[in-house]
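If you are new to this repository, start here. Below is one unmodified record pulled from the training split, so you can see the exact layout before writing a loader.
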Amino acid sequence: QLFRLAFEERHVLLTEPLWDRDHPSARGLQSWLADQRPEIREILELVLEQSIRVMATGASPAHLRKIRVVKRSTPRWDTAPPELPLAQACRLAESPLKVLVENRRNDAAFLRACIPPSLRKRLDHAEEKGWLEFEMGGGLPEMIHRVRTDGRRGQEHRAARLAVVYDSDARADYDPETGATKHDDRLAREAWGPSADANEMARVCERAAGRPYSYRLRRRSIENYVPGKILEAWARGRPERFKVVKAYLSMSAEQRHYFNMKRGLAGDNNSGQSPIYVDLPAGDQAALQHGFGSLAEFFHEREFRIEPHWLNDGQIDEIGKLLENIIGLV
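And here is the target side for that same chain:
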């Protein structure tokens, strides 16, 4: 079964020591291969050689998950890499990757629309085969509960096939290591980096058994990656909307990336306005009071694509890499 999945390019399959048909260390494997029918043996050897080539050429994804198959009845998830009995390794290799996003319909549609052409066929193929499934988390509190449940001891196989993508909810540009921003004021107890829920999600993923893949978006939310061309389409024929788009696009990168896209500046009144907007012209402040609503509605059609040249605000570097890592985990 592991060979079949490797032949289908679900994973690479390496032996210890590394397969070499002419090396004395491979005698045990050679003996096993010799017992197979010629047509089967040819495929098995092809899988081994293909896997070695993939690893040697650096074509394997950066976030390749490694599992060591061992002759033991119980798994060991605390080793690096985890050690699993054959049956559990096959079960894990055959399980689909669950990509947990806050809103399955909107977030997944946006990610599909942003995918670079070089990865598009691989994502479509993985979804069609049932190897990758987007799931709705329902917001950060519910997502935290899901990861805690799947990350319990005895449920490692579930967490190992989980990828979590979530908003930072940050209100200003922050250090990804510490979460601190240059605008924080400890005395006033003001912090503008990732929200408490976003920080808790990072901790839960880090501690979860099975080591799920997790990624916190650098910007406030997934809507903050929407390109200007989409906003212009949203405003077409609507002068009042055009004022909003014009004011938004005139802001600095930090102001755009941490703007409350759904509810605008007024949406942050109860929690306090981020200091990054202190120098925003009065006219722009007025235009941006109520934001854009649910922009992700643009992406519900599966065939909708964002042209790569529209992503001219740094989106492709982050979202493209994220999608590459996710596809690599399939």
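Two things worth knowing about this chain: The chain has 14 helices and six strands. The chain has a mean pLDDT of 87.
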